[in-house]
Amino acid sequence: MRIGIDLGGTSVAVGLVDDEYNVLYRTSAKTAGCKTDSELFEIINKCVYELFEISDISNDKIDSIGIGCPGSTDLERGLVVRSGNLPLSNSPVVSILTEEFKK
Fold it and tell me: What stretches of 1-103 show up as alpha helix (H) in DSSP?
């Protein structure tokens, strides 16, 4: 099982995907109005935990988490360097998600 996160300027969509890439469950929330990256990740984390609740799947069943977001990235360092429509500037996206979900 995998989690996919689609992060946009007005909303975030989070889906639980099986090994054949079928979306089994999904949830979303508005991101418009977020002023800081911590506010944004609070919303993302809430969506992921909501997904665990509605799917009755626990974090230990998740193999990986992927995220897509607008802007420029530094893949080697796991950063969103700049995003025009999100409050992300040199934001350590990979380490934030890894710390929260251990993936």
Answer: 37-55, 93-101
